[in-house]
Amino acid sequence: MPLLDQLASLLGPSGLLTGSDMTGFESDWRGLYHGRAAAVLRPADTAQVAQAVRLCAAAGASIVPQGGNTSMVGGAAPDESGAQFVLSLSRMNRVRELDRADMSITLEAGMTLKAGQEAAEAAGLMLPLSINAEGSATIGGVLATNAGGNLTVRYGNARDLVLGLEVVLADGSVFEGLRRLRKDNTGYCLRQLFVGSEGTLGIITAAVLKLAPRPRQREVALCALPTAEAALALFGRFQQHDPGAVQAFEYMSGTGMALVNALIPGATLPLAEPAAHYVLVELATPREGGDLRAGLESVLEAAIEAEEVLDAVLAESEAQRLGLWMLREEHSEAQKRAGASVKNDVSVPVSRIPAFLEEATRVCEAMVPGIRVAPFGHIGDGNIHFNLVQPEGADPAGFLARDHALMDAVGAVVQRLDGSFSAEHGVGRLKPYMMPLWRGGAELEAMRAIKAALDPQHLLNPLVMLPRP
Ligand code: FAD
Ligand code: MLT
Ligand code: ZN
Question: Can you give the residue ranges of the FAD-binding PCMH-type domain (predicted)?
């Protein structure tokens, strides 16, 4: 029987999509990749995933795992061959278990991150991972990319939350690692190998994640700053005041904020004057009572006194808190509306961020007159989305034709400052060409050996992460 018929009989009518039903699965969020899939497979449980993978392996057919398809680097889009199968876990979206005593939750990989957060909240706890695509991004996707996001400064990246994993391997066997141990040094830590592997080593079908106490108090402020150095000085002040309380510390450039104001309906900057730099800080504590608000005010007063903060607005209600966060969360959408963007998801040691911003801006402005340099991101982690928006009115295709030149120029600055060209979004299909420069020699060879051992036929997401030998 042809492979497609075998898969159809395994998965049933709602488990296999073809033709126009595949729209939405074949292109990426940024609109950089437009592929064609052989079919979209939607298994209902781990046994069906394993069986589907086994059938594909026997036929030598390639699989592209896909979650919410929010990848910023084209990691979940099929190629144009029409021969790859997209494997979506959207039907596997249950909470398998929540254990209050162990502070853990076992989620199926197709559940959205937001649904996972809500399940934890319903139990009075918190799943401490938050990204601005959480309504669509899935547990499988955030683990496969080791997503970071807005809470990393306090709780770490996705990797830091993983206690156990269930993974279907490239031959269809199942790694049953849904353990919830806080300590377990039994051999290699295989689960961490799959976290951040971008669908190249196995299909994550479920995970046990750590939960945290739910914050009982939260305070948010948006601050206008004169310089990037002032952002770091402010971060230092908050960390010194109460390191455990800083839940998010996010940076936005004046250019990025202006785009949000201009292009996102309902977005309004609640400050008297626009500034060159902004920071959004969120403090939170699981304790009742206490002086969170007073602490926020006293740190800001001292920073204003020292002229590190020009102006600040504190949220007085939940609606205002969400309004301030919206100014940060809508940055990606506003930049999408402004035309073509070249995204550089970079990290440098936190102390070097001002030097990075200054040098990289100078280099890019010299390369493309009129370019809109609109950096923003998780400055508390040293992670800046150094996004470059096309000059107003320019031809988007012409601008994108220079993407490698711009990425390489920014990369050269990052490299001088001992940073990384791939901080949290992953390598995807967009950046494998950069791997030999950044992870060459023994490191890249070890990665290739791991891939060859776990996926000897190179069937799982073959265009992603590792450059073709
Ligand atoms: P997809 O995009 O579908 O897939 C991503 C990669 O994971 C692909 O390589 C895919 O093959 C693989 N994959 C997916 N599911 C599985 C699985 N079950 N098993 C194995 N491999 C799998 N990222 C951050 O880190 N921090 C942010 O703050 C952040 N903000 C974002 C904001 C916006 C508006 C958008 C659009 C994206 C943002 N991202 C961010 C990018 C980020 O990588 C994703 O949003 C998220 O991690 C991907 O989840 P997903 O389910 O959409 O995965
Ligand atoms: C975010 O933090 O909002 C995303 O990771 C960013 C992006 O658009 O580059
Ligand atoms: Zn981010």
Answer: 33-214
| Cα–Cα dist 159/200, whole Å | 17
Residue 289 pLDDT: 77
Above 90 in pLDDT, residue 194? Answer: yes
Q: Which of 185, 213, 241 is the last residue of a domain?
A: 213
Q: Give the residue numbers spanning the domain of 460.
A: 431-469
pLDDT tens, residue by residue, 261-297: 999 999 999 999 999 999 999 999 998 877 899 999 9
DSSP state of 459: -
Number of folded domains that form the chain = 5
Q: What is the DSSP string of 394-426?
A: --HHHHHTTHHHHHHHHHHHHHHTT-BS-SSS-
Task: Identify residue 321 by its one-letter amino acid code.
Answer: R
CATH number for the domain that contains residue 395: 3.30.70.2740
Ligand 1 atom with least separation from CA of 66: 3
Q: How far, in Å, CA of 330 to CA of 323, rounded?
A: 11
Average pLDDT over residues 37-54: 98
* pLDDT tens digits along 215-227: 999 999 999 999 9
C-alpha of residue 63 to centroid of ligand 1, in Å? 17
73 lines ligand 1 (CB under 6 A): no
Q: 469 pLDDT exceeds 80?
A: no
Give CA–CA dist 223/312, Å, rounded: 4
Are 42 and 63 in contact by the 8 Å Cβ rule? The answer is no
Backbone angles phi, psi at 372, to 5 degrees: -105, 105
Does the complex come out with an ipTM higher than 0.85? Answer: yes
Distance CA 345, CA 424 (A): 7
Q: How far is CA 156 from CA 147, 151, 159, 210, 424, in A?
A: 10, 7, 8, 11, 12
